[in-house]
Amino acid sequence: MLKKTKTKKSGELVLKKNPQALVSVIAPEELLDYIRLASSPWKTFLFNFLRGTAQGVGLILGTAIVLAIVFKIADQFVTYPVIGEWLQRIGENMALKK
Fold first, then answer.
1. DSSP string of the chain?
2. Are the C-beta atoms of residues 2 and 17 closer than 8 Å to each other?
3. Closest residue by Cα to residue 89 from 78, 67, 73, 72
């Protein structure tokens, strides 16, 4: 039988430590995949390493795309009097710090 208790902090239902309850919540195929992954430390390490690498590459590519768009838009404002002077000063300061 499935035992549930309410937590004091969030009020959500939490399952007690019961393997049968876990099987009823998670599909058996997913549980088997998790057991295979968790039983091998090397598989877990490789999975987490590849996941972190993919997240890092995605972060770098996303940042590059967003910054390229921002700089392209800022380049359009160089001809305006106040904003153009401000952007020009920023560009000069960045060139001096290299």
1. ---EEE-TTT--EEE-S-HHHHHHHS-HHHHHHHHHHHH-HHHHHHHHHHHHHHHHHHHHHHHHHHHHHHHHHHHHTTTSHHHHHHHHHHHHHHHHT-
2. no
3. 78
pLDDT digits (tens, 9 = 90+) for 16-52: 566 666 666 677 777 777 788 778 888 889 989 999 9
72-87 pLDDT, tens digit each: 887 787 777 777 788 7
Domain residue ranges in the chain: 1-39, 41-98
pTM: 0.50
Instruction: Tell me the backbone φ, ψ of residue 12, rounded to 5 degrees.
Output: -80, 160
Complete DSSP assignment for 29-50: HHHHHHHHHHH-HHHHHHHHHH
